[in-house]
């Protein structure tokens, strides 16, 4: 009709359903490129079945991280090319993934540990040798302080006894005294403290050595074989007799002069080491070490006395044939030993 304006098409907003792409305004279909973008966005937000959302976002791709690491220039290379970094990274990955290289690294680590243990044992051995040397020096200083009774004094204290009966009395008293020392050290070690064990062993060896040195000197008096020389020289000779477990022959100067040589410390160290190995069970706790120490010390003292008496008995001089001997010198600071 004339005068009527043509009706304009009504613009109706179309209802967009959830999950569907928004339609283009003024058209029946979506705009070009909108469908693909919205579809990708929608698929990116959809959760994967069975996946667990821990709030940390999507896991990164190992391939992408590896590619990014390979693309970093190597500062150590003058060219700084990604290929150099790729070769370097690939070498690291290949080294980690190589089982032979891993085994080689493990072997090197084990060898380093073994070397550390070996160094510790070496230092411990050096410390033990130093302790044994110090103990040998202490015995050399102790020997002249041991009081010794001469033959006249022994015959007055044990009247009516012959040489063998008197020697038996001396051995019995020394064995009981060394057993007492072993029992005392074992009782002190009832609750073992590792730092105190070397000191306990040293104290036991020193006490037993003093008792046996006194026994050896008095056995030489009983059998009429007093070594010549001063108090220090006789004490050194008795100390050598204790270390070698043999008697001194006064008629042979070599046996006395050998006691004054430089081999005395070596023989003392060997004897002290042997005694320490035998006395380790004395440190057993719960008073078991006391009984073990008493038995072992008594046995060792009897054994040393048997070796000394066998050597002296073969060269014994009867009492009637003995010349008049002067009384023994007494040490200025004697060690208290009573048996």
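^ structure tokens above, recovered residues below v
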């Amino acid at each position: 009709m004339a005068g009527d304006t043509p009706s304009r098409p009504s613009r109706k907003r179309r209802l967009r359903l959830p999950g569907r792409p928004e339609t283009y305004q003024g058209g029946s279909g979506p705009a070009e490129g909108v469908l693909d973008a919205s579809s990708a966005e929608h698929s990116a937000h959809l959760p994967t079945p069975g996946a667990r959302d821990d709030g940390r976002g999507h896991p990164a791709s190992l391939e992408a991280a590896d590619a990014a690491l390979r693309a970093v220039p190597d500062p150590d290379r003058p060219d700084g090319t990604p290929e150099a970094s790729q070769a370097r990274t690939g070498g690291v990955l290949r080294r980690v993934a190589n089982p032979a290289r891993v085994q080689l690294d493990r072997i090197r680590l084990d060898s380093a540990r073994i070397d550390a243990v070996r160094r510790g044992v070496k230092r411990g051995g050096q410390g033990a040798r130093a302790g044994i040397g110090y103990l040998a020096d202490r015995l050399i200083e102790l020997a002249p302080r041991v009081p010794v009774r001469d033959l006249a004094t022994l015959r007055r204290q044990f009247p009516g006894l012959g040489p063998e009966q008197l020697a038996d009395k001396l051995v019995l008293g020394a064995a009981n005294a060394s057993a007492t020392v072993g029992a005392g050290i074992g009782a002190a070690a009832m609750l073992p403290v590792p730092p105190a064990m070397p000191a306990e062993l040293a104290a036991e060896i020193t006490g037993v050595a003093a008792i046996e040195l006194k026994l050896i000197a008095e056995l030489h008096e009983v059998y009429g074989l007093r070594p010549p020389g001063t108090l220090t020289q006789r004490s050194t000779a008795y100390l050598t007799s204790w270390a070698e477990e043999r008697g001194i022959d006064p008629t042979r100067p070599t046996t006395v002069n050998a006691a004054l040589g430089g081999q005395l410390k070596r023989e003392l160290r060997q004897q002290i080491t042997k005694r320490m190995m035998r006395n380790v069970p004395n440190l057993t706790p719960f008073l078991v070490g006391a009984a073990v120490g008493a038995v072992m010390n008594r046995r060792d003292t009897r054994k040393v006395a048997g070796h000394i008496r066998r050597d002296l008995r073969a060269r014994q001089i009867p009492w009637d044939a003995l010349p008049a001997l002067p009384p023994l010198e007494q040490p200025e600071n004697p060690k208290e030993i009573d048996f």
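The first helix runs from residue 34 to 45.
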